[in-house]
Amino acid sequence: MSDLSATYQYVDDNSEELIAEYQRLVRQPSVSSSGEGVAECAELLVELMQAAGIDARVVPTEGQPIVFGEARSAKPDAPTLLHYSHYDVQPGDADDPLWDALPFEAKRFGDRIVGRGTTDAKGNVMAFVQAVKALNATGGLPINLKFIFDGEEESGSPSLPGFVEAHREMLAADAMLGFDGGYRAGDKPHVSLGNSGLLTCQLRAMGGSKDLHSARARLVPNAAWKMVWALNSMKGPDGEVNIAGFYDDVRPVSERERELLNEAGFFDPDWHDDLGVDRFLNDVTGVDALEQLLFTPTCNINGFASGFVGDGAKTLLPSTATVNLDFRLVMDQDPADILEKLRKHLDDSGFEDIELIERGFIEPSRTDADAPFARVVAEAAREVLERDPLLWPTGDASGRTTHWIATRLGIQSAGTGIGPPDWRGHAANEFMLVPYFLSGIKFATRIWDMAGERGGFE
Ligand SMILES: [Zn+2]
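Above: the input record for the complex with zinc ion. Below: its predicted structure, written as tokens.
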């Protein structure tokens, strides 16, 4: 084990300066939904990265700019780790009376720094940037580092996939680390290894060529019934999706993943409260519910529109019915393949005339729970943060960030976050605690150090 004591000492000795620079970044608004301050924040971040010894620059996109940075190790054949986080923030919502300080004041109350972006994600961004500074001041970098700091994560990262495709060479790396958010309940750092996929689409059924008096239902087909029958053919009350081949590519849950689910545990009452139900679908409980949440694909109706649903009597034969569907997908389901299977299902079931329109998709992504890089992040967390991390084998939500990029680049990935639990994400009084920020800096240096010791991620 290499010795980081000088680096850790540097962090402790220079904590006030490391924190002050982080506060500077929080004080610069960067609201991607309105554009407020984003370009200025990108410039400031480049300045702070350069001060830490990172070769950084602003890369324009069709939307908000991405900040890209690179820092090389002097060691020959050092592996390269690519990082992803974001410098944009949610709106400040200064009118919310629950703020103890102005949203972009980054005001410090003892160990608590309050402000929009303090954890999500400028606290995370600056912990990693300051980790580079600390290592550069105490002997240099053990591995090569690359950083993507997104300027529109809070707006769904629309420019990120194009950026990744256009810069594959520049982004070449051996593994990828995302950092955002904070610890989970129970004061446990988390390490996530994947995301669900998503396919959204619209179905349109036609009855007659126009809405008619309902007496004509004896002669003219009803679009709403047609849609109901089509939907009924796709999924039954048992929850099974009846589209031929829908489950063909679902990767079975590995023994290791099941182990991680057991370690993570699942407390039903909290989830019941959170979701506003008193039981789950199929009456699953405990870890089985967690497995169902993370590893089963869905076919979900978002909305159904047809005919007249107002008060009073109106006798109508609707000519159109529209339904928006989404499918949460798991490894290794392919959204394009599922869309084709859905079309074939409709055709084979007598619904050739129902129109199917794709509305967007995100591929699922997942790193093997036993992958060497996942172990590095978990071990570094255990050692530096002195807590067992919660390893989350995949996520129920979908996104085109860390895991998605890593899957595109064919490398392993892990996601983590250094903010305190209950950091009030997207709400008034979002905060960071100084000890979490400083231990986050040390955590980053140890991840890199451990990766250097192991000479890569094979
Ligand atoms: Zn975030």
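Notes for the reader.
Residues 81 and 203 are 43 Å apart (CA to CA).
Residues 86, 120-121, 153, 180-181 surround zinc ion (CB under 6 Å).
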